[in-house]
Amino acid sequence: RNLSTNPNCHVKWVAEESPQRQTYVKTNFPKTQITANWEDIVNDPEVDGVVIATPASTHYQLTKAVLKAGKHALVEKPLAMSTQEADELVSLAEETGRILMVGHTFLYNSAVRYVKEFIEKGELGEIYYIYSKRLNLGQIRSDVNAWWNLAPHDISILLYLMNGELPSSVTAHGIDYIQPGIEDVVFATLTWENKVTAHIHVSWLDPGKIRQMTLVGSKKMLIYDDVSDDKIKILDKGIDRLPKIGERMDYDNVNNYQLLQRTGDILLPKINFQEPLKIEISHFLECISENKESLTGKKHARDVVAILEMGYHSLKNH
Q: DSSP characters for 217-266?
């Protein structure tokens, strides 16, 4: 839908095996051709770019074929199922001079961009820690666990907020309840060299839908709630360290201070929300036409996979 309504591109093909989905495309997008064979798209010389929205385990194979055919690629998350595969795709994109972009849609979300700007302005102060919850009941997958399915969103946001810096350690613990070997719930901790710690909780076995990230800073605190009407809540709360008058009026003594709890206003800023996928599609087309690196391009996509793989090893090796 977003591709078809964008004036800067024409959707020539859709490759789809399901007869029901084929009928849907024929009915709603009559100018688009249907094929059950994805190679028809890759081999078409008129096609400039390909969007890959398939199961995660197929991303590497399909993206490799698209890049080798000299076409630009927008791949759904994650880019691949291992860092080795991701590195190979990055190298291939550099060799062919093609755009390689991954659909980490939340980085095109107006609320997430507001959080980024808020941090860069110094409003939050020094970041102490971050924790996120991405929970729901249902949409259980059999090809990947909850970590590979849900955590890419939170990891991509964290990397974005941390200016692309990789964490120094990743630990994860998860349990499989429904299907053997496929974890339904995962708790992970990411730690950076500057002492910032992030905790990620993902599950498709939870009573309610929650998509929330909380940031605690030295000046203020912020809650990003994707399912709320108020996407951003800023809390002027914290602990202030104030100098304390001693017997010798010694303010230079670093240990001579008192800790005071501060509670101020709560701000609900207005977010001019646009559909993130629409912005993402426009950005992909812009990167192709102007030959520029994407916000969710090669390095970002590769680093998300690296963190996912580190967490997966921790998960399986306890």
A: ESS-EEEEETTSSS-EEEEEEEEEEEE---TT--TT-TT-EEEEEEEEEE
Contact 204, 136 (CB under 8 A): yes
Q: Which two tokens stand for residue 256?
A: 């001579």
Quick one: pLDDT at residue 253? 56
27, 34 contact by CB (below 8 A): no
Q: Mean pLDDT over all residues of the chain?
A: 94
Beta-strand ranges (E) seen in 138-204 are: 169-175, 185-191, 197-203
Angle between helices 146-161 and 298-317 (to 10 degrees): 130
pLDDT in tens, 158-215: 999 999 999 999 999 999 999 999 999 999 999 999 999 999 999 999 999 999 999 9
Task: Give the span between the Cα atoms of 107 and 279, in whole angstroms.
Answer: 10
